[in-house]
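Example 3.2
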Amino acid sequence: MKKSTNNKINVLVLCGGVSPEHVISVVSGASVAQHLDRSKYNVYVVGIGKEKGEWRYYGESKFYDDNGTIDSHLLKKTGWKELVIVPGRECVFCVVDDNKLKELDIDIVFPVVHGENCEDGTLQGLLEVVGAPIVGCDTLSSAMGMDKDVTKILAITSNVQVTPWVYLKGINELNEILIEKKLGFPVFVKPNAAGSSFGIHKVKDKKNLIGAVKDAFKYSKAVIIEKGINAREIEVAVLGKWNGEVKVSLPGEIVPLREFYDYEAKYVDKKGADLIAPTTLKKKEKELITEYAEKVFRILRCSGMARVDFFIDRDTSEVYFNEINTIPGFTVISMYPKLWSESGLPYSALLDELIKIGKER
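Structure, written as tokens:
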């Protein structure tokens, strides 16, 4: 891949995607592009179309329309050209211009994408095959981190405590009696490989279980059912390389003001939850969460960034690993950059660190 001819690093911010999380990705992509220091970087944006998955090259122009609300952030329908990847060329990224290919000088790709075909290792594998340096996790760690069942299994091998769960490969495997006996109620039904709380349901009794499971299968090929815990929801941000230095931020806390921290509470309802960053924990709780976060980051072979989520049982003070997000939200109010800011690493400096780690890999 060609390198930039000046002292600036050419960064390609990639957002959007054929995913229910398309809009969230566009918002995060806009925030990343805005906060990259222009004295250090030339910033170009590619938005992946939601319906057809085309790669829209917007260059340095504004790439989204909005009316001030998160649900309105949509990729602009005009002002873009098709971007293609041409394996075997010194420069693998090319823009289609008047039926000709115009080469782009890109030093590193910064994916800010979520969901299937974006965060699950598929996109990372494509970029690795053509030799494009990327920010964040590689193919293997992205795929493992997206799969909640696999992540839990691996976490247990590192002596990290997880909430009890049942894994379903199909709706025919659902056994309400077994669920009640093993997990009790309430339970949380979740798509095994999806994000942003799509398809997640809190189920309080057997009669509502099958409907929740059917809905979860709309978002993933497998579903997990977790034991419900009366818990505090704690998150930490992790930065580094699994085989090198790993840093863990101060902890933050999600205080849902709805039934639980669902999609509406995360992105739509401004009064859906309080985000406390940093939050106050007992010394032992904080130490255990930090230890667990680093263990999970390393066992999944993560690089660059990850947000790691935990539960603290209000009754027993037990700490449970919940899940990992290898491409967390990157809006200015998202927990990942917010926690690093509270830990002494401002948003723009955080982007510098992530690009540095990506280029070193």
